[in-house]
Specification:
Blueprint lengths: L5 E7 L8 H7 L1 H20 L5 E7 L15 E4 L5 H10 L6 E4 L8 H13 L2 E5 L5 E6 L19 H7 L6 E3 L9 H11 L1
Parallel strand pairs: 1-2, 1-4, 2-3, 5-7
Antiparallel strand pairs: 4-6, 5-6
Length: 199
């Protein structure tokens, strides 16, 4: 039985107007698409190179998991399926019921393999691990084994400052650990803040 950890990157096929809509409201659809492709491609290359975990892409829309050349070749792709973000995340985690598994987004510019490694180290000691973000959400969620994800995302208010708090309510009395806070790029303010840090 393969017990190696699994890292799942949630990605959206970068069709014009379909990605980074909040960012596009400030910079336009063409620039938002380019930023998304750059961020996602860099992140995927970073977390899938010389890594002791299996990296997979979970893709929406579903048919884009099996066609298109948007992402790095050689990585396994699975469709996210239908439903809310929470339903899609739970479904993917449950595919690996007996293995450590984590999900990250595709728009975290400062991520490194060390961050992922810290997440999988933490999950050896705990049932759940979260990488919080400054907006009240989280850039990583991991479970000691995928079967623990059942019900984890029930009634979560996504894209709000309550996303992490709502998710934590669903962990019950199980052990929870947190790793480093990182920022994702959701809107123009996030982009400007990150570019200011880089300059």
């Amino acid at each position: 039985m393969n017990c190696s950890p699994v890292l799942i990157v949630f990605v959206r096929a970068p069709y014009l107007g379909a990605v980074k809509k909040r960012l596009a409201a400030g910079v336009g659809a063409f620039k938002a698409r380019r930023i998304y492709i750059d961020l996602a491609s860099k992140l995927i290359a970073t977390v899938s190179t010389c890594a002791p975990w299996q990296t997979m892409l979970s893709v929406t829309p579903n048919n884009s998991a099996f066609q298109g050349r948007f992402w790095r070749p050689g990585l396994n792709r699975i469709p996210q399926g239908y439903g809310t973000l929470g339903e899609r995340m739970e479904r993917v985690l449950l595919k690996f019921p007996d293995r450590p598994v984590a999900i990250i987004g595709s728009d975290i510019p400062d991520i490194s393999n060390k961050h992922i490694q810290n997440g999988f180290v933490a999950i050896r000691r705990s049932d759940f691990v979260f990488g919080p973000s400054s907006d009240g959400g989280y850039w990583l969620v991991g479970v000691r084994m995928g079967s623990l994800a059942r019900g984890l995302f029930k009634n979560v208010r996504w894209s709000s400052e309550f996303a992490l708090k709502d998710t934590l309510k669903n962990t019950g009395l199980r052990r929870v650990e947190f790793i480093e806070e990182l920022h994702d790029i959701d809107n123009v303010s996030d982009l400007n803040q990150w570019q200011a840090q880089c300059s």
